[in-house]
Write a structure and sequence with these properties.
Shape: globular
Largest sheet: 8 strands, mixed
Number of helices: 10
Oligomer: single chain
CATH topology: Rossmann fold
Order of helices and strands: EHEHEHEHEHEHHHHEEH
Low-confidence stretches: 213-218, 223-235
Number of domains: 1
CATH architecture: 3-Layer(aba) Sandwich
Strand order of the largest sheet: 3-2-1-4-5-6-7-8
Helix content: 40-55%
Length: about 300
């Protein structure tokens, strides 16, 4: 039998931030960490849904140390506020989980294409702003949730905001490729700085979440919503199973910098294992270019992590 939630090491005394933890994979990951004793902050955009998730988690895990904190990854002011209000001098685990998928063209509060802005730039900025806490914590990890659909597209360095023709699934694939290039470059810079912080990535395979419905809802594409829900019921693994690669990357022994963890069976379902990734997600030059562009776009530096 493969690795499962019962294999998570004791997390007592550790603090975790999980973005998008009000539902789906994020909620299940937060619950798994709380069950093993971690203090978990649910970083969510909606106060109503975030508070409800915290109450649900405390009901499911008696004695859980958890709380909601407001975080809107589509607004860099909110990201800065979250980091500035973070309590404590250490952070053991940052799970960059939140995201949007296949949404119509739109822009964030700062003018970035929505999927690139939320899925990549928001988490890039959050990680950079919380970096001092991570660097100060022995055994800290950063886990960024990508997708097998990163294989749909490499990033276009000349059109990061998809201004020259927008195709929602290509834009989604680019944002998920950006997650992996970010992890690749962050791992390289941490190693160059002599840091023991581990940056890894994960993907859930095909898990039963509301991402497809959420992507279709803004256009009221009722048929797509219904088909997505039917497909989830018939094919997808439960959200709790989809969260296992994230939990593995966050807690398992032997996770290496720049690992990419996903379901074992064809990348769709099953116990966590190291996953295939497109060759372009290990391109050093592309990763450094994206890093530089992301710093310029967000205004967030990673002090202490030079290019090396």
């Amino acid at each position: 039998m493969g690795w499962n939630e019962t294999d998570i090491p004791d997390q007592s005394g550790r603090t975790a931030v999980v973005t998008g933890a009000n539902s789906g994979i994020g909620y299940c990951a937060a619950r798994g960490l709380a069950r093993r004793g971690a203090r978990v902050l649910l970083a969510c955009r909606s106060e109503r849904r975030g508070q409800a998730a915290a109450e649900r988690l405390r009901a499911e895990v008696p004695g859980a140390r958890t709380a909601y904190r407001h975080l809107d990854l589509s607004d860099l002011t909110s990201v800065r506020d979250f980091a500035g209000d973070f309590e404590g001098d250490r952070l053991d685990l940052l799970v960059n989980n939140a995201g949007v998928m296949g949404v119509p063209y739109g822009r964030t509060a700062d003018g970035f294409e929505t999927q690139f802005g939320v899925n990549h730039l928001g988490h890039f900025a959050l990680t950079g702003l919380l970096l001092p806490k991570l660097l100060a914590t022995a055994g800290a990890r950063v886990v960024t949730v990508s997708s097998a659909l990163h294989a749909l597209a490499d990033i276009d360095p000349g059109d990061l905001n998809s201004e020259h023709g927008y195709r929602r699934w290509i834009a989604y694939g680019r944002s998920k490729t950006a997650n992996l290039l970010f992890t690749h470059e962050l791992s390289r810079r941490l190693a160059a700085a002599g840091s023991t912080v581990v940056a890894a990535a994960a993907h859930p395979g095909y898990a039963d979440t509301n991402l497809i419905a959420a992507g279709a809802a803004p256009e009221n594409r009722a048929l797509l919503v219904r088909l997505g829900r039917i497909s989830n019921r018939l094919v997808a693994q439960p959200a709790a199973a989809g969260a296992l690669p994230t939990l593995y990357a966050a807690t398992a022994a032997g996770v290496r910098p720049d690992d990419f963890v996903g379901p074992r069976l064809q990348g769709w379902r099953g116990a966590p294992a190291r996953s295939w990734r497109a060759p372009w997600t290990r391109d050093d030059a592309a990763a450094e270019r994206l890093w530089t562009a992301s710093q310029t776009m967000t205004g967030v530096g990673f002090e202490g992590l030079a290019a090396g």
